[in-house]
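Render this sequence as a predicted structure.
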Amino acid sequence: MKRRYIFILIAILVTTTTLILLLNSGDNTIYKYPSGKDTVEYFGDGTFQIFRGGPDDPLILYNHLADPTENTVDNIVSYKIKKNIVYVVGEKSFIKLDSSTNTYEQKKRISDFTSEDREIFNKLMEK
């Protein structure tokens, strides 16, 4: 009888320990700007995020550091993440975002970027 209670106690302890480890194994990174329900992607500390505008609205690249009236960088046509660099083709511009430094270059013409960057932007425009 005692042996049965010991096995039940061990089973409860193993189950509880497993649940605690599973709950704590998630991403525990603390972001300066947390993601919301409409966030599709976030970069670096969350300063730059891609939001879903709505069912018929395009994706939006959002900058939390900008003035509230100017924090939308551009409507997104396509984007690619390559390590800590994010390449974005917008409706009105091309954007190269460095998520490690929270900086970005936004140009109207693709020719203003390096040849390597232009190659990535051209592939994005083909999609």
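Summary. Residues 39-126 form one domain. The radius of gyration is 22 Å.
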